[in-house]
């Protein structure tokens, strides 16, 4: 799988319409009808989560390191807590390899891998992925439309039935042409839903511009959605600290309202997806964005 092509685009920096589009969708609601097959899939996912906890894991603590293991230079500010219906999402899981890695990392939390392709999901849990071991009992795969599944999951979060301490969004289609920009997650009407879902969201990509746009879009949404009295402080701080540094090739934003946004290049020791392995073997620079919001606004 070596020799992977790098992303080519007619866009050399952040999209010129990024802020305008993100601000527009941060103030609107995405009303497209949810597909029936995704509703059916979501019912199956709910049943898996319910049975997982009823089979003896109800009340299992969410590991304190959920954030610290993910965020480079993790802090000690996390507070241990219990969440009987904690759920981890692996969005766009493809063949499901990443779901297995995440499930092994957090064995006390059900991990739902979501993809729209039956062909890809049919490969999930094969012996190559598991290295001959059993599939973790907390791993579950479902075929669904991501944008619809996120909205259904957010309903459960708002109802207090689910909490999502970690949400993996690994290597989505970057849609590199400028004319395709609104198909990127961070320039789509459902981006505010994505941010509202998880306490920690990690995006991985092999396109630097995608990572930088995702980080900036998150900053914009939070600057709009936080309480009015704090808005100016957060806008000013994150706008300054998210300026990209060519020297350290990373950027970070933190505010005193419980929001942290990190954008950085990284070199995975053990690749967790076929894409990650392919890009690493091709010696491409990989990027990740970690958005952590300790509380919802």
Describe how the helices and strands are arranged:
Blueprint: H1 18-26, H2 36-57, E1 61-62, H3 65-68, E2 81-82, E3 88-91, H4 97-105, E4 111-115, H5 118-121, H6 127-130, E5 139-143, H7 146-158, E6 167-170, H8 191-197, E7 200-205, H9 208-225, H10 228-241, E8 250-254, E9 259-266, H11 274-281, E10 286-293
CATH topology: Rossmann fold
Mean pLDDT: 82
Q: Could you give the order of the helices and strands?
A: HHEHEEHEHHEHEHEHHEEHE
* Overall 3D form: globular
Structural class: alpha/beta
The total strand number stands at: 10
β-sheet strand percentage: 15-25%
Calculate the terminal CA-CA distance, rounded to whole Å. 43 Å
Biggest sheet strand order reads 5-4-3-6-7-10-9-8
Tell me roughly what share of residues is in helical segments. 25-40%
What top-tier CATH class fits best? Alpha Beta
What is the radius of gyration? Answer: 18 Å
The main β sheet shows up as: 8 strands, mixed
Q: What's the name of the CATH homologous superfamily?
A: Vaccinia Virus protein VP39
Query: Treating each run of at least 4 consecutive H or I residues as one helix, how many helices?
Result: 11
Q: State the domain count.
A: 1
Task: Please explain how this structure is put together.
With 297 residues, the chain is of the alpha/beta class. It has a single domain (18-293), classed as Rossmann fold (3-Layer(aba) Sandwich), CATH 3.40.50. It contains 11 helices and 10 strands. The chain has helices at residues 18-26, 36-57, 65-68, 97-105, 118-121, 127-130, 146-158, 191-197, 208-225, 228-241, 274-281, and strands at 61-62, 81-82, 88-91, 111-115, 139-143, 167-170, 200-205, 250-254, 259-266, 286-293. It has an 8-stranded mixed sheet. Strands 1-2 form a two-stranded antiparallel ribbon. Helix 1 crosses helix 9 (208-225), helix 2 (36-57) packs across helix 7 (146-158) and helix 9 (208-225) runs antiparallel to helix 10 (228-241). The radius of gyration is 18 Å and the shape is globular. Residues 58-83 and 228-249 have low confidence and may be disordered.
């Amino acid at each position: 799988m070596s020799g992977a092509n790098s992303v080519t685009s007619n866009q050399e920096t952040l999209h010129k319409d990024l802020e305008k589009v993100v601000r527009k969708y941060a103030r609107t609601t995405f009303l497209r009808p949810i597909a029936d097959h995704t509703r059916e899939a979501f019912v199956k996912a709910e049943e898996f989560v319910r049975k997982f906890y009823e089979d003896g894991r109800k009340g299992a603590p969410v590991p304190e390191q959920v954030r610290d293991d993910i965020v480079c230079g993790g802090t000690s500010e996390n507070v241990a807590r219990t969440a009987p219906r904690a759920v981890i999402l692996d969005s766009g899981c493809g063949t499901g390899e990443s779901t297995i890695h995440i499930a092994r990392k957090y064995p006390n939390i059900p991990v739902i891998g979501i993809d729209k392709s039956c062909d890809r999901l049919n490969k999930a849990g094969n012996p190559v992925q598991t290295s001959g071991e059993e599939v973790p009992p907390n791993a579950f795969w479902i075929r669904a439309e991501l944008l619809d599944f996120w909205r259904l999951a957010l309903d459960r979060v708002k109802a207090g039935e689910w909490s999502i301490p970690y949400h993996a969004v690994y290597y989505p289609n970057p849609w590199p042409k400028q004319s395709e920009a609104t198909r990127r997650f961070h320039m789509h009407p459902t981006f505010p839903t994505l941010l509202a879902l998880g306490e920690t969201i990690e995006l991985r990509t092999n396109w630097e511009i995608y990572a930088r746009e995702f980080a900036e879009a998150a900053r914009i949404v939070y600057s709009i959605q936080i309480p009015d009295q704090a808005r100016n402080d957060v806008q000013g701080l994150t706008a300054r600290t998210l300026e990209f540094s060519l020297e350290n090739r990373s950027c970070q934003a933190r505010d005193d309202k419980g929001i942290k946004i990190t954008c950085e290049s990284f070199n995975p020791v053990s690749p967790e997806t076929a894409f990650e392995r392919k890009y690493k073997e091709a010696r491409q620079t990989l990027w990740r964005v970690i958005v952590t919001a300790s509380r919802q606004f």
